[in-house]
Structures are given as C-alpha cells and as structure tokens.
C-alpha cells in the first residue's frame, strides 16, 4: 500500500471512530503520514482507535462526560501501547463487536 492509500484509510478509520468530531484537518493528515513513515501497520492504528473508543465508552455511569476528540494525535499514545503490547487480534475483534452494543447502552442512559 502506498502512502496516499494508507493515509486515506487511517483518516477514514479516525473519522468513523466514536467520540471523534468526524472532521479531518491538515495536522491529522501529517500525523497519518508520519505513522506511515514510521512503518506503523494499519491494523495497529485501527486496533488503537477501537481500544481508545472502547475505553471512553465503558466508564462509570456517574463519570463526567468526556469532550469530543478533535485530533488524530490524541491516539498517538494508544498506538504506541498497541505496538508494544502482546495482545492478540481476537481481543480487538471482540472490542469491535462489542463497541456498538456499549454505544447503544450509553445512548440509552445506561439502561
């Protein structure tokens, strides 16, 4: 995959991640290109997005609301965490499957 396709796929995944503003800015493109230059696998980026989104959704019901994520760089530390982790792909598949359910519960007020 060339850099253009990689950046587009990263930005599409970012835009679709729950909790993000859904808008891509120039710094987001630069961050995605830097990930490509580092050789970060697309799977690792996608896994980090789902991990961070899941962590933001699965919280105590009385926790204060979190703000909207406005930058792909927000996920940088989670991307690094995923790269250093020995967690297998099944865990991230599980998160992808459960995230819509958790979002639905959150949207219904936790009921």
Describe the protein's topology.
Elements: H1 3-16, H2 26-38, H3 42-57, H4 76-84, H5 89-107
Helix pairs in contact: 1-2, 1-3, 3-4, 3-5
What does this protein structure show overall?
With 111 residues, the chain is an all-alpha fold. The protein has one domain (3-107). The chain contains 5 helices and no strands. It has helices spanning 3-16, 26-38, 42-57, 76-84, 89-107. The longest helix is centred in the last third of the chain and has 19 residues, at 89-107. The radius of gyration is 14 Å and the shape is globular. The mean pLDDT is 91.
Structural class based on helices, strands and sheet pairing: mainly alpha
Radius of gyration: 14 Å
Q: How many domain regions?
A: 1
Give the overall form: globular
Q: What would the average pLDDT be, to the nearest integer?
A: 91
Task: Give the topology string: H per helix, E per strand.
Answer: HHHHH
Instruction: Give the strand tally.
Output: 0
| Percent of residues in beta strands | under 5%
Instruction: Determine the fraction of residues in helical runs and give it as a percent range.
Output: 55-70%
Note the total helix count: 5
User: Spans of 5+ residues with little confidence (pLDDT < 50)?
Assistant: none
Q: Major sheet: size, sense and barrel closure?
A: none
- C-alpha end-to-end distance: 43 Å
């Amino acid at each position: 995959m060339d850099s253009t396709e990689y950046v587009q796929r990263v930005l599409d995944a970012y835009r679709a991640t729950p909790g993000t503003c859904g808008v891509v800015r120039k710094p987001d493109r630069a961050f995605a290109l830097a990930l490509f230059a580092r050789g970060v696998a697309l799977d690792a980026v996608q896994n980090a997005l789902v991990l961070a989104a899941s962590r933001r959704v699965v919280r105590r019901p009385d926790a204060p609301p979190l703000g909207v994520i406005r930058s792909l760089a927000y996920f940088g530390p989670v991307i690094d965490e995923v790269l250093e982790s020995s967690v297998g792909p099944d865990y991230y598949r599980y998160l992808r499957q459960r995230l819509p359910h958790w979002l639905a519960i959150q949207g219904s007020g936790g009921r």
